[in-house]
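Subject: sequence -> structure tokens, single chain

Hey, anyone have a minute? Need the predicted structure for the following. Not urgent.
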Amino acid sequence: MRAYEYYQKNGIRHLNELLEAKRKSIGLLCSFRSRVPLGSSGLYYDINKVKKEFQTLCTILKVDFHIVGINQNSLDWMDEVYKVILGSHMVVVDVSDPKPNVLYELGVTCSLRLYESVMITKHTSSTFDCSEVQQLQILYYDCLHDLSEKIRHHFKAISWPMESELNEAFYQMHNKLNYKAMILLFTICEKHQERIGPDGIGPWHISSIEEEFLNSASELVELGLAKYEYDVSKKKGQLGWALHPTELGKRYIESNYFKRFFYPGTPTP
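Reply:
Had a minute. Here:
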């Protein structure tokens, strides 16, 4: 599966998982070679040391660490690459040892993620020339401790999730959702407004026993905008479904894209 196809099928789901994740995460894409000379400096690139440094950093930051497995066949490798790219809050691509797979992964990362959540890193002794992509975020480091400190400061400076990334996802969803799925979200929003109590809190769900309801809801579930559970109808004692918006679904309902469609008279920032 090509990167674009994978994103169309799984991208929004991965974004929702990032929103609902209990822990943040950093993904690393890099060469898996060891003892590779970095120019004439006498220094070496070593994946084992790089990996160990990132593991230590993520432990200190109390975030998850994602990296592609070393011994995988090509199909597993592609799937893992996409998951690291879309399933990490921040993606670090180290180009100190610019093997073809690393440059491919960098291109895919920049095509699927906004630049704010992507960081390119390069050892100062590496002969690889990054001058033509200076518009991207590049961190130069002279030792692994230096790299770790710069990644730590950058990660803490970024608020998650990125609003720009959410807006891009909302734009794509708004042009993709069919009308029935949009109506379900509108109904959830209206019911929620009716149920808000004095404390400003109200439930987010609607229920039904109709098969057509489940068919329309399946698109929302597939995109990661909603989740459903079995529910017993109060009227007939029949088995039905309760549809709940996910965190991503709530954010979309509260976005300008949704409000302008169903509430055109409501001023939005």
